[in-house]
Specification:
The chain has about 160 residues and is of the alpha+beta class. It is about 30% helix and about 35% strand. A seven-stranded mixed sheet has the order 1-2-3-4-5-7-6, sandwiched between helices. A hairpin with a 2-residue loop joins strand 2 and strand 3.
Length: about 160
C-alpha cells in the first residue's frame, strides 16, 4: 500500500493516545516503554515533546524528544510495521527536527543500537554523525549504543526541506 504523504497529519501526543502508542512500542521494540512512562513524560517532564503521525485518523507512527537548552535528545521514533519502508520514518524525523528548531534547538542527539544499520543509514541522511559508544546501553541484550549528533540547519528546516 502506497501512502499519499499529503494525507499525513502530525500533531502533539495526548494522554488519550497512550494505549495506541504502547501497542506500537510493543510492536517496534524489544524493551518497550510502558503506559506509565509515557504518562510521566507527558505530565511531568517539562523537557518532553512527543508527536504522533496519523493517516486517516489512525496513529501510524510517533516520535519523542527532550529539548534542553539548545539541544534535542531523541527518545523514541517508531512506525507501525505495515507502514515501514515507505519513507515515513524520514518524515517523522524531519518533523521532529523542525519541532526541535521551533523550540530553540541547534543540535540533536540520539542513541541507536550498533546493529541497527537501517536506522543509522536514515540518521546519516539527516546529518547525524557517530560521536561515541554507550557500552551495554540496551538492557534486553546488553548491546552497545552508538551515540550520534547532528547540527540542525534552521534555514532548511524552517523552509520545509530535507
Amino acid at each position: 500500500m502506497t501512502i499519499d504523504m499529503d494525507r499525513l497529519v502530525f500533531r502533539a501526543m495526548m494522554l488519550a493516545d497512550i494505549d495506541t502508542i504502547v501497542e506500537l512500542e510493543q510492536e517496534a521494540f524489544t524493551t518497550p516503554w510502558t503506559a506509565e512512562a509515557f504518562t510521566n513524560e507527558l505530565l511531568n517532564n517539562m523537557f518532553a515533546r512527543y508527536m504522533v503521525m496519523e493517516l486517516g485518523g489512525a496513529i501510524i507512527g510517533y516520535a519523542g524528544m527532550w529539548v534542553i537548552m539548545d539541544e534535542a535528545h531523541v527518545t523514541n521514533i517508531a512506525v507501525r510495521a505495515e507502514y515501514r519502508g515507505q519513507g515515513l520514518g524520514r518524515r517523522l524525523l524531519h518533523e521532529l527536527q523542525r519541532t526541535a528548531v521551533f523550540f530553540g534547538s541547534a543540535k540533536m542527539t540520539l542513541e541507536v543500537r550498533v546493529s541497527n544499520e537501517v536506522a543509522q543509514g536514515l540518521y546519516r541522511k539527516f546529518g547525524f554523525e557517530p560521536a561515541g559508544i554507550r557500552p551495554g546501553y540496551y538492557s534486553d541484550n546488553n548491546e552497545d549504543a552508538l551515540i550520534m549528533w547532528a547540527e540542525l540547519d534552521t534555514t532548511q528546516l524552517e523552509a520545509g526541506e530535507q
